[in-house]
Structure formats: structure tokens, C-alpha cells
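the two lines:
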Amino acid sequence: MSETPITHEHIIKSYDAELARLLDEITRMGQLAGEQLAMAAAAVEERNSDLAARVVEGDNAIDALEHDVSHDVLRLLALRQPIARDLRDVLAALRIAADIERIGDYAANVAKRAIALNQNAPMRPAASLPHLAQVAGGMLRDVLDAYRRSDAVAAHEVWKRDVQLDTLYTAMFRELLTYMMEDPRNITPCTHLLFMAKNIERIGDHATNIAENVYFLVHARPLVEERRKGDHTSTLVD
Amino acid sequence: MSETPITHEHIIKSYDAELARLLDEITRMGQLAGEQLAMAAAAVEERNSDLAARVVEGDNAIDALEHDVSHDVLRLLALRQPIARDLRDVLAALRIAADIERIGDYAANVAKRAIALNQNAPMRPAASLPHLAQVAGGMLRDVLDAYRRSDAVAAHEVWKRDVQLDTLYTAMFRELLTYMMEDPRNITPCTHLLFMAKNIERIGDHATNIAENVYFLVHARPLVEERRKGDHTSTLVD
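prediction for all of em together
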């Protein structure tokens, strides 16, 4: 029986190694999604359709990583049967990977619309988009950093920042409406910009989802707070 | 030791009961989401803002059910430590509940925008929305039915139907653009309708996600097929 502690230690070490691998995969996913978003914004700013096409193509790598995470989670649950904090760790990984996968989709959609946009004359309101992307990208970076450090306070700070992104989005939405009303030729490109801005606003929502998961991971209870209304444009009448 | 089989049977029965409860919760969630979508569409068709307000309010019930599902999944994983098909069942429940929760959000968003829309004069293209909602609602109902019966073939059929919804969405998108170009006063209400149509198109995407989960549940391998491009409007140039 003298080997039992060693074997037990071995199991624990191996479990920790698997969890660390999961965290690495998610960190890699998050970095890729952040890069995709920044490149999509650059593609708009520089009217660079080749760059946009690379972003559309690059989404596959994020999808493949999410597939790896799901596979590893299934394997880890089946073989290790974790409980309590360990179980929350594994399920948070699954959820956070799903959020990052969606963020990648949104970045790819911004890039796809950038290609269509670049076939029209330049539009002044397009200049507001990179800033929106920068704010959303900052939220993503900081919430993933909070996740790596299991820092619920930092996660909550990111969660609160979403209101700034919503304010920027609403301002851009109103700006786009005035451009559309000014000249009917602006309508199609502005419609693309509306959806691009909305995609970035949604990236902020997914960053707040990740923040909620970090909070639950640490505290084993949900982050309950009066949720900001998010997109205020849905109630605009004129 | 004679009690072992009885205890074992008891554990199995109790596990099955917990899984059945999970399935019931998800079925209830799906029914609610389907009703919410139908009511949101009716609120548009009848220009009924009271009904729309009830849909916005009603989303809380779906969110609460998703919370119950997440809680039950965590408990089931910790206490029962399922493997193989049982584990896939539990994780599918978690994912499908998340998809239904999003579908509920989209239905509530359609309702929220219906309230804004009803403050403007009636718009002819609004008449296309209920049909879009009907197609998406049909996909949701059928994929949940496939889920209850663990029927991967039926799930795959629903998955294929998403292309019809995308076609309807693209037609409505184009119709809305022409209305916006015709009269600048149409721009704000048509913008709401653009997002409402997009919300319903996204409900179809979530129904296909559920279909993919049912397929994986049954076959333990992902549904791999050339994915339909979905929203074709992102490449529209004029």
C-alpha cells in the first residue's frame, strides 16, 4: 500500500496538467479571437479586402480549437469525474470556449462585410468602427486575463465596462441613421456598418458572459446585479 | 451483500429520473421560447404593444429555467459522474438549454423592437416577418421533438431546412433596403425590421446548433457537412 500516495499524487498532477492544457487552449483561442477582431477593424480602417479575407479564413482555427476544448472537457469529465471547484473549472472552460467561438464568428462577420463595404466609396461613419472594436478587444483581453488569474474582482470590472461599449454603439447607430437619411446611396453601406457595429456590441456581451463565468468559478454563485440594458437602439423611435 | 443489486438499481432509477427531469425542463424551455416567438410575431402582425411588452417580460421565465438546468447539470455531474452516452446526454442538455435561452433573447428583442415599430405608421414589409417567425418556430419545434426522441435523422432534416429560412431572410432584407431608399422616413422603422429579421434568422442558426447536438448525442461524432453560408446579405454590394 506504500505506493498509494505516489499514485494519488500522480493522478492529481496529471489532472492539473490536463486542466492547465485546457486553460492554454482557451488562452490561445482568446488571443486568436482578439487578433481576428483587431485585423477586421484594420481591414475596415485601411479598406484592405485581402486582410479581411484572411480574417474570414482564419475563423476556422478558432472553431478547431473550440472543438479540441469540447473534446478535452468530455474526456476530462469521463476519466477524472471532478467535483466542486474542479468541476466548475471544467464547465467554465466549456462555456468560455463557446463564448470565444462566437466572438470569432462576429469578428469574421465584420471582416466579411468589410469586403462588401470596400466596393463602395469610403463612408465617414466607418471611421467610428475601429474605436468600437478597440474597446471590445480591450474587454476581451482583460476578461481572459482575469480568467487566467481566477480574479473575480477584475472580471466584474470588465463586466461593468460593457456600458461604455453600448454607449459608443448607440452613438454610432444614430450617426449611421443620419447618413442614411441624407443620401439613399448611403443606405446599403450604412446597413453593413449597422450590422458590423452590432457585431462588435455583441462581442462585448460575450466578454460579459465570460466575466460572469469567472465570477461563478470563484464564488460558486452567479453574479447578480441589475443588468445594464445593453443595446438601447432597440427602443429608438425616430 | 445481497442489497447491492437493489441499491445499484436504485441509483440507476434515480439517475434516469434526474435525466428525465432535465429533459422535461428543456422541453418546457423550448415550448416557452416557441410561444414567445409566436407572440412576438403576433405583436408585430396585430401592432399589439401590450402583447410585445408581455413577451419582453416573459423572457425571465426562460432565463430562470436555464439557470435550473445549469444547476441540475452541475449536480448530476458531481453526484453521478456519468460517462459515455450518459455524459453526452448531460452535456447536450447544457448546450441545448443555452441555445434555447438565446432563442428566448432573440424573441424578446423582436418584441422590444415591435413596441418601437408600433409608434410609427404601419410598414408594408412588416407583413413578411410573421412568416419568417413561423418557419423559425417550426424548426425549433421539430428539432426539440427530434431531441426528445433522440432522432438524429429528424435533427439532420431540421438542420437542412435552415437554408429556406436564410432565403426568406435575404428576400426580406432586400425588400427593406428598397423601402429605405424610397423614403427617408422609412429608414428608422426599416432598421428595426432589419434587426428583427436578423434575430429570427439567428433563431434558425440556434435550431441548427441544437440539431448538431442531437446528432452528436446519438453518434458520438460531429455532424460534418459543408455548412450553408447562412446570411447571404453580408456580401450585398448594392
